[in-house]
Design brief:
The complex is a heterodimer of chains A (315) and B (323). With 315 residues, chain A is of the alpha/beta class. Chain A is 30% helix and 22% strand. Chain A has helices at 46-53, 103-113, 119-131, 148-161, 178-195, 206-212, 230-235, 240-248, 254-258, 288-292; strands at 6-17, 20-31, 35-39, 61-66, 69-70, 86-89, 166-170, 198-202, 215-220, 223-229, 298-299, 305-306. Chain A has an 8-stranded mixed β-sheet with strand order 6-7-8-3-9-10-12-11, with helices on both faces. In chain A, β4 (61-66) and β5 (69-70) form a beta hairpin. In chain A, α2 (103-113) packs parallel to α4. Chain A is globular. With 323 residues, chain B is of the alpha/beta class. Chain B starts with 5 loop residues before the first strand and ends in a 5-residue tail after the last strand. Chain B has an 8-stranded mixed β-sheet with strand order 7-8-9-3-10-11-13-12, with helices on both faces. In chain B, strands 1, 2, 4, 5 and 6 form a 5-stranded antiparallel β-sheet that branches. The interface between A and B is large, with 42 and 41 residues.
């Protein structure tokens, strides 16, 4: 559990696409001002969950509470309510910007949505442009004329112009070279300190997740299998999938590499998840019970949550 | 010291662009020893993929290439007629690409493609024999139910299984040189680890050398004996992986290694992450002097003149005035 006040609560959330269940009865709490990492392999539902959080994908069952308000009821369903509180940074920044609008129009759009385009608010947004290291001459340009790094910053200014409290970042460093990813991550950290933002970071880059998050949630086939502090997850993972995922991460340190175990098999189809524990087809510690009974996500005395009948390290 | 399997000297590649020629590789010298795994690391625009395409003779039409020498198994490739050079592909050299979907033919069953690739190398074998060899190799690389899957098409395989098929195809021709260009970049973490295990495992089957092209320092540290560090079209440092990653001599190698995040490192929350300020140079309008100088923390007057790659102790080379 987090010791911060909850800003975002997911309660038994289900996201379906036709007969495919992408997110299955998922519950998770995000604390105000924290950075939560969401990790897992393709098809685990992490992007579906990210989209559900910002209202881009409807949820089938369960509910999402933002600041205690159910996002599918009352005022929260009004246009602009959600987008003024939570914003998504897309994985492909160039594709997420309309090619027909200049940067100036792209940055004014969020203010128009808030009915707040005044000389003063526009000046604030221009200040953000400068703060994020962009030149004001960029306002004349169109998305295809921007570099990847510039497009990423423009998307960030756009998201911040809505004055959200939460930013969901989908693979924020994807496609960035090692020598420049630090610049973006430092910028996100500065903005968090200055604006008190809460981040949900979706990424397959475990090095980045290990460095910038306070807590990590690990997903497998639409469900969370483990949630805990980043240090605990990296130092003493309790779920066999988490351990395999962390061991698979190529690292420079030779000593750490030697003791690695490689998970066998591939992700089963999310159309037809295995019965019992969904991970049992690949688990190195599988027992009879795992094939029959689905383990619930349970906290230990320290609040570390794991969904496994036979966790590592005594749980 | 034994003669290297492949010796590259003075390799230059330019791409014609609207603004003029982009010099994507400049005076590249690399030796690939026999029976070695050599990693080529660099960021976008470093020229590492162009290097692979040059060796395989697969450069696009707008590329112009020249080399003082490209010596492979004692044969000078740069003076070889096109037809003979092409025959090296699929016999003495093979390549595994990042995206197997775009290098497998979508309309032919996997088995057909695996048989066809062996025909140049083994004209004496019957189709039946070739099919048997292919099925055995699929089993070898960990494709379950290989005999039945021979009649399947590429889209019916997962990404990890397609990459296993590509590796099986490369192994079938027993190349002296296998080039793997970002072979695990498109794969999920646990599948990537499986393919890394497979590459390590088949290494002894190859009886040749492997060039692994990657942006991942961890992957290169994991799989390779030697490493070539490239920056903006030039080789800046080479040597044994442990030497180069353990005690980097070029300021770029050092700065890049600093940028690699260790998720276990005890750091204050909010401590700034290392980065290399600035951006790589424009390959169309290259500045004079050392290619890394504009971003180098140790730049000084001599860097206005480009340093040559020099040998440090016979086993490693570096292109920097400070060494």
């Amino acid at each position: 559990m987090t010791d911060r006040a909850a800003i975002l609560q997911m309660e038994s959330v289900v996201v379906r696409y036709g007969r495919l269940t992408a997110v299955d009865r998922l519950s998770l709490v995000v604390g105000d001002g924290e950075t939560l990492g969401l990790v897992g392999e393709s098809g685990c539902g992490k992007t579906s969950l990210a989209k559900a959080l910002v209202g881009l994908t409807p949820i089938d069952r369960g509910r999402i509470l933002l600041d205690g308000a159910d996002t599918s009821r009352g005022d929260a369903t009004k246009r602009g309510w959600l987008s003024q509180r939570i914003q998504l940074l897309f994985q492909d920044p160039v594709a997420s910007l309309s090619p027909r609008l200049s940067v100036r129009r792209l940055l004014q759009e969020p203010l128009r949505i808030r009915h707040a385009l005044t000389p003063q608010t526009w000046q604030e947004v221009r200040q953000l442009v400068v703060d994020l290291g962009l030149s004001e001459s960029l306002l004349q340009l169109y998305p295809h004329q921007l570099s990847g790094g510039q497009a990423r910053r423009v998307s960030l200014v756009r998201a911040l112009a809505m004055r959200p409290r939460i930013i969901v970042a989908d693979e924020p460093t994807a496609g960035l070279d090692l020598s420049v990813q630090g610049e973006l991550l430092n910028l996100l950290a500065q903005l968090q300190r200055r604006l008190g933002l809460t981040y949900v970071v979706v990424s397959h880059n475990l090095n980045v997740i290990g460095r910038i998050t306070d807590r990590v949630a690990v997903m497998y086939l639409g469900q969370i299998v483990e949630v805990g502090t980043t240090r605990r997850i990296f130092d003493r993972p309790a779920h066999h999938y988490t351990a395999g995922l962390i061991a698979a991460n190529p690292v420079l340190d030779r000593a750490r590499r030697r003791k690695r175990t490689v998970l066998q098999g591939e992700l089963p189809s999310p159309h037809d998840p295995p019965p019992g524990c969904r991970f049992h087809t690949r688990c190195p510690a599988v027992q009879e019970r795992c094939r029959l009974e689905e383990p619930a996500l349970r906290p230990d005395a320290a609040g570390h949550q794991v969904a496994c009948h036979f966790p590592l390290d005594g749980g | 010291m034994a003669a290297p399997l492949l010796s590259i000297r003075g390799l230059e590649v330019r791409y014609a662009t609207e603004r003029g020629p982009a010099r994507v590789l400049r005076s590249v010298d690399i030796d690939i020893p026999e029976n070695a795994v050599v990693g080529v690391v660099g960021e976008s625009g470093s020229g590492k993929s162009t290097l692979a395409l040059t060796l395989m003779d697969l450069l696009p039409g707008n590329a112009q290439q020249s080399a003082a020498s490209l010596l492979f198994e004692g044969v000078e490739l740069s003076s070889l007629p096109r037809s003979q050079r092409r025959r090296l592909r699929g016999t003495r050299m093979a390549m595994v690409f990042q995206d197997p979907m775009s290098s497998l033919h979508p309309l032919f069953a996997i088995g057909t493609q695996m048989v066809d690739i062996q025909r140049t190398k083994h004209p004496e074998l019957s189709s039946r024999d070739l099919r048997q060899r292919a099925a055995a190799m699929l089993t070898r690389v960990g494709v379950p139910d290989a005999a039945a899957r021979m009649s399947r098409y590429p889209h019916e395989f997962s990404g990890g299984m397609r990459q296993r098929v590509m590796i099986a195809m490369a192994l079938l021709v027993q190349p002296k040189l296998l080039i793997a260009d970002e072979p695990t970049t498109a794969l999920d973490a646990t599948i990537e680890a499986q393919i890394v295990e497979l590459l390590r495992d088949v290494r002894s089957d190859i009886r040749g050398s492997i060039i692994l092209i990657s942006h991942s320092l961890g992957l290169v540290a994991d799989l390779c004996d030697h490493v070539v560090v490239m920056y903006a079209g030039e080789v800046v440092e080479t040597g044994a992986v442990d030497d180069v990653f353990g005690a980097p001599q070029h300021p770029y190698t050092r700065a890049l290694l600093d940028c690699e995040i260790d998720p276990w490192a005890a750091v204050e929350k909010g401590a700034a992450l290392p980065r290399i300020p600035g951006a790589p140079p424009d390959l169309v309008e290259m500045p004079a002097g050392c290619v890394f100088a504009p971003r180098c923390p140790q730049r000084h007057e001599r860097c206005g003149v480009a340093p040559a790659l020099k040998s440090l102790d016979g086993n490693r080379t570096v292109a920097c005035w400070l060494r």
